[in-house]
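Quick look at the format.
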Amino acid sequence: MPYCVQCGNSVRAVDQFCGKCGARQPGAGASAGHANDFVSGISNRNAELLCYIPLVGWIAAIVVLACERFRNQARVRFHAFQGLYLFVAWLMVEWVIAPALYLSDYSLSYPFHRVAIRGLQALVLAAWVVMIVKVSHDEDYHLPIVGELAERSVSEQRS
């Protein structure tokens, strides 16, 4: 059974509009060769959720940002940017901070390095989990630094 692309409500395959939110549904006669067909049946909330899957959500975020279907959906684009920036934060911990800490004075404070890196990893992972919960409850939440960057990215694209 298909679902509404806007709100996720179940609709019949022949329905052109959702009975709950009134959003136009993709037609059954749409061209099969269209590049964005795989995202035509996904709801906005599901697209937002996919952007926060730890370690692989960046793929969904890039698809959302590149897809024509979400071009004018500021909220979905915000979550895509925020999910992408969370992944960048993870990479910063893994590829920049961890090697820098391991290379600095290894013999004196090695246990501190391990605790600091694990703490930063846990912080980013917790942010992913919090955002999954917030998006699944349809709540708008901007993470402290990453959310401001995402909001700025969305507003730059609107102008």
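Next, a different chain entirely:
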Amino acid sequence: MISYFTPEPPQSRDSDKILGMRDSNLQRREVLGALLGASLATAVPGGAQTRSGDIPYRTLGRTGERVSAIGLGGYHIGVPKDEQDSIKLIRTAVDRGINFLDNCWDYHDGKSEVWMGKALRDGYRQKIFLMTKFDGRTKASTARQIDESLQRLQTDHLDLIQYHENIRMEDPDRFFAPAGPLEALLEAKKAGKIRYIGFTGHKDPAVHLRMLEVAEQHQFHFDTAQMPLNLLDWHFRSFAKLVVPKLTAQGIGVLGMKPMAFGNLPQKGLATGIECLHYAMNLPTSVVITGCDTMERLEQALEAARTFKPLSETQLASLLSKTRSAALTGNLEPFKTTQQFDGTATNVSWMG
């Protein structure tokens, strides 16, 4: 049998020093790359960052829409036991300056959309940029889910709708297939039901990159793309390194999610909630979507928005070095390494 691997010669102390210097230089280059991303955070296509009270506002890709740099996650809206608590939380977020609201057709079997729809009565719908997602992989299932979301959210249009869970290599093909989701989306857009179109995914940056490639083949431009962006992601299967630069180059709005790795970063003592949100805001994101199921969590998000400043090289290097070892296995990002978050995989009927 032929061996394609040869053992390396023993390293001398001098060569150990050289390798150590190389490792140090590599880490420094990673930090500088992150800092480049930080410099883009206030230079997203369309103009510089502005503020509305305590909340920074940024431009959503090429759309020209001004959106809050912090967005309210839809899944956690359905967590409180009392819908009045959820309604109060949503309206407080809007009253305090958050105008980007996230949701999805399947969250809590539609409860998140129903409760959000009730919160958007009494003039609140006019104050916000409303996004939801759909799971359909056919024209018929997509059209049905769009109409159901509109009904639940008590609105005649969605500002943004996104193709949910682009997590399989074939999902881009399904999106552009004849009698597929895009046909329903374009018809809904023509009818005034939706304004902008994006896609999401949490599994592997390779799937996002393939979606962008297939979109280019079909001469279609997405308005937004959503993905996990957190301190662990920088070191493992990184959307920040591989996908975000391509999105910004194409003028696609970057939507960050899971900034705390579903709570694992603060729970493991690797970074505070504020540090997690600041890191994600430091990237060239239009919006960082964070889940808030209590007023305490909402106050944390608002404080992160109020206190955000671009991170210094020292601050960034410290955060990245503290999270590197914990990130390398992927265990703390189960949405990448397990099926725990793959709703469409465990509920195939959702896809139609």
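The longest helix spans residues 13-40.

See the schema section for token definitions.
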